[in-house]
Write the structure tokens for this entry.
Amino acid sequence: MPRLPGNNPLVSARGKQLCSLREINALEPEEKERLYREFLPPRLLSLLAVNNETLRTNDGGGVEFIAPAGLGFTRISARRNREDRDPLFFLEISDTDYHQIELSFCIITDPDAPRFQVDLDSAGKDNWFASLGRNIPQELRSMRAGLFPNQVRRGMRLFKVFFPLFERFVDRLGVDMIMAEPLTYDNAIRYEKYGFDYLTGRTLMGSINEGFRPGGKLFERLDGSTPFRMPGMERTVRGRSWAIHDGVLDEPWDGVRIYKSVGDSAGVNTFPEREEEEFS
């Protein structure tokens, strides 16, 4: 049963209580899309200028749902028009084997902002979040423009609107836990602000904070040897994240798993001394 005040169980048009994405995906397209739009921020739909009924635009843009029947997996993307290279909104979620919801990806970008090709290698091929090679010149431009690692454009600051809506949706399914895997240090810190705790990686986050304090080994490695390791970067989430992206750790960023109990905030803060900065 739902845990959040004022929340009701999610039911189909036929009155069947729905408890998973798989069950939603078994419905007719119009009904499952109606249910999934519950957690789409109203501002997103306004920016897209979509038809309120079809969620499409006249020039081929709008919201696209991929929610295959028989699978507990859903992908939602939204573009203003078919020519847009990057979606304004991109989400992947899935059921887990333990009646949880996995928040795999949530990317929100400003389509009018300058684009940085940090997602492409020197040959113009997708580098899969820099795992297949980095584009240093583009990363430098991106960092100097105030972006975080792997951001191709600045964000829209819509996650703070999206996530409470998504949590209420998960609660309506009777699911009490949201799982995620932050791909970067700044993502982990961002999720902390929304009440997540660590399934794995809490020790790593603590050691990172200790290492970046004055006298720590990571602090000492901010020696100006690369533009991503400049003194002073230890004071901000953005600076630390770029240094980690540059390989300042003794180990690769990997294996960090986080979770949020619906309706609860873990109150975790692994970087309490950080300077305030906007997360885009």
